[in-house]
Amino acid sequence: MDIHLRILDKAELALVRRVADIVWPITFQEILSPEQMAYMMEMMYAAEVMEREYDEGVSFCGVFDEEKPIGYLAWGRSDSAPDTAKLHKCYLLPEYQGKGIGSMMLNKAKVYAKEAGFAKLRLNVNRNNAKAIKAYVRNGFQTVETVDRAIGHGFFMNDYVMEAEI
To answer: Rounded to an integer, what distance in angstroms lies between the CA atom of residue 25 and that of residue 92?
Structure first.
């Protein structure tokens, strides 16, 4: 394995969607209804949505095994506080999980945020995603809030907000 991360340019955002199309159904099959999953995929991963986020300053980072895309993360400025960055997305193909790559991704997100002048990194995680919550805690994140956010079409995001000092 030759695992590396790199910032993606706008023309490469389709790589994120390709990995999300594999990861999301596996990650959320027992958490979200198929209808909510489809709705959220378009809400978060439609090409025009990611391109708008990119234009608004969200950074997308691809994770690769040699040249094969195996994961991604996206981060940017948080609305919660001026010293806080927001980790919007952090996903890894299932066959690469449990090998320390997720921790490497989170550490890299912290480095990017610190280099940009932030003191904290904040994220939302579905309250039923026990595997992700465990990984975040292991990597220095603590739950700071519980939120239920309406996202349209009668769907909600039922999340923990977690934060780490960087």
So the answer is: 12
Task: Please tell me the predicted confidence (pLDDT) of residue 114.
Answer: 96
CATH 3.40.630.30 fits domain 3-165: yes
- What is d(CA 7, CA 108) in angstroms, rounded to the nearest whole number? 11
Structural domain boundaries in the chain: 3-165
pLDDT of residue 80: 82
The fraction of the chain above a pLDDT of 70, given in percent, is: 100
d(CA 124, CA 139): 15
156/36 Cα distance (integer angstroms): 9
Give the predicted TM-score (pTM) of the model: 0.94
Contact 77, 20 (CB under 8 A): no
